[in-house]
From TrEMBL:
InterPro entries: Class-I_Pyr_Nuc-Dis_Oxidored, FAD/NAD-bd_sf, FAD/NAD-binding_dom, FAD/NAD-linked_Rdtase_dimer_sf, Pyr_nuc-diS_OxRdtase, Pyr_nucl-diS_OxRdtase_dimer. Belongs to the class-I pyridine nucleotide-disulfide oxidoreductase family. Residues 353-455 form the Pyridine nucleotide-disulphide oxidoreductase dimerisation domain. Pfam families: Pyr_redox_2, Pyr_redox_dim. NAD(+) binds at G176, G177, G178, V179, V180, G181, V182, E183, G263, D305. The lineage of its organism: Bacteria, Bacillati, Actinomycetota, Actinomycetes, Pseudonocardiales. This is Dihydrolipoamide dehydrogenase. Its cofactor is FAD. It comes from Amycolatopsis saalfeldensis. FAD binds at K52, G113, T139, G140, S141.
Length: 464
């Protein structure tokens, strides 16, 4: 294949790269998809899929315990949980993903791809692929590693180890109160580990409304997670079979494993951006169609985590659809519109990014979580206390927030926290994206008795 020419070369075969390649191929282009690890990427083998497979059994068991009359065994079987996770990840076998690519008319290419010139990608040492129309970079993100004295004396877990381990550590330390930290803290606590979650603030999920972090904090502690707030790790030292942690307040903890979950950064370091005069320590800046305007000729595109826009698989796939379609349309010589909400514009990256934290309680949001500074926006907060939630679980606790643009009478954002609220999120996303007037939303009648009746209560609290 050395010296072969394609219409499009996509670097990175995670879900984002796969979608970008598929959309370009559906547009009639000849596409190569380059991957140096597993086709299917981080999400399929080490992130979204295995983490949710680890979380689901514990959430289901907790839900059963909240409804009298349901026979409950009382504890999870870790071996069966791990076996089900491994089924979903295929134990790292990506043959199915490679077969899918070929079936979609995409040429899979194994090896590390690096941009080495205009419209040129070199895979490995000497396999040169030339793109007639575009190179699309979909290399995702990598974990951020904090600078902590002694951390290099142990082998800490990252998110990959946390989702792929097949033995329950007796004591697990978790550093970081973001999504990975809280999800894995709860998952491993329910699998039987003594978990210590160390966070720097008063509550986890600091970017979300305080009630979200407070409810989750209560849920974690109810599961037996020891949450060390207003703290951090000052020093780490290796001990037999584990690590000794010195916390910010001087407290000492000894754990068998330490998960470092302190965020991720766009993977731009070894893609060859330096050849083009672009920074290798910053997100790849793209326009609404995914094109890198700083590169002459308009042949370089990016989508997903590598752009730093919204580090979420579903949002990356959305941007990949836009990028793949834009490349195909421009290759046909079409003039495309990148006006907001057009097919060739990733507008939702700025206004309607849905996200779910799959803990118990679940935490979900889309759009704004607070009023805009200096605006006439109104924030409506209520408890989720409807017939549907009462029937769903005894002692159901949850909260909802709606942010409203009072001048236009439309919803700008919604936050839900509570057991099983993730399924409410898409209705909120449609309301935000569609800019549905509140007077019209009033006529979207929620079925009784479901938790969705919270929509009626939000509108009533607003004054309708």
């Amino acid at each position: 294949m050395s010296g072969q020419t394609f219409d499009v070369v996509v670097i990175g075969a995670g879900p984002v790269g796969e979608v970008a390649a598929e959309r370009a191929a559906k547009g009639g282009l000849k596409v190569a998809l380059v991957e140096h690890e597993l086709f299917g990427g981080e999400c399929s083998y080490w992130a979204c899929i295995p983490s949710k497979a680890l979380l689901r059994p514990g959430n289901l068991l907790a839900a059963a315990k909240r409804v009298p009359g349901v026979p409950v065994a009382g504890a999870l079987d870790p071996a069966q949980v791990f076996a089900r996770r491994d089924w979903f990840t295929g134990k790292g076998d990506d043959a199915g993903q490679v077969g899918w690519a070929r079936g979609a008319g995409i040429e899979p290419v194994r090896g590390h791809g690096r941009i080495t010139g205009e419209r040129e990608v070199t895979v490995g040492e000497d396999q040169v692929l030339t793109a007639r129309h575009a190179v699309i970079v979909c290399t995702g993100s990598v974990p951020r590693s904090p600078s902590i004295p002694g951390l290099d004396t142990i082998r800490p877990w990252g998110s990959r180890e946390a989702t792929s381990a097949s033995a329950v550590p007796a004591r697990l330390g978790v550093l970081g109160g973001g999504v990975v930290g809280v999800e894995m803290a709860q998952a491993w606590a329910r699998l039987g580990a003594e978990v210590h979650l160390v966070i720097t603030g008063e509550r986890p999920l600091p970017k979300l409304p305080s009630f979200a972090g407070d409810l989750l904090l209560g849920g974690l502690r109810e599961e037996g997670v020891f949450v060390h707030t207003m703290s951090g790790i000052r020093e780490v030292s290796a001990v037999d079979g584990g690590a000794s942690l010195t916390l910010a307040d001087g407290e000492q903890l000894v754990v068998d494993e330490l998960l470092v979950a302190t965020g991720r950064a766009p993977a731009t370091g070894d893609v060859g951006l330096d050849v083009l005069g672009l920074p290798t320590d910053a997100p790849l800046a793209v326009d609404e169609s995914g094109r890198v305007s700083a590169v002459d000729g308009g042949w370089l595109y990016g989508a997903g985590d590598v752009t730093g826009r919204a580090l979420l698989t579903h949002q990356g796939k959305y941007a990949a659809r836009v990028a793949g379609d834009s490349v195909a349309a421009r290759a046909r010589g079409e003039e495309i519109s990148t006006e907001p909400w057009s097919r060739y514009s990733a507008t939702a990256d700025h206004h309607a990014v849905p996200q779910v934290v799959f803990t118990d309680p679940e935490v979900t949001s889309v759009g704004l979580t607070e009023a805009r500074e200096g605006s006439a926006d109104r924030v409506v907060d209520i408890d989720i206390a409807v017939a549907g939630s009462s029937l769903h679980a005894d002692g159901y606790q949850g909260k909802a927030r709606m942010v409203v643009d009072t001048e236009r009478g439309v919803v700008l954002g919604v936050t839900f926290v509570g057991p099983d609220v993730a399924e409410l999120l898409h209705s909120a996303t449609i309301a935000v994206v569609g800019e549905v007037p509140l007077d019209r939303l009033w006529h979207a009648v929620p079925a009784f008795p479901t938790i969705s009746e919270v929509w009626l209560r939000l509108l009533e609290a607003y004054g309708l």
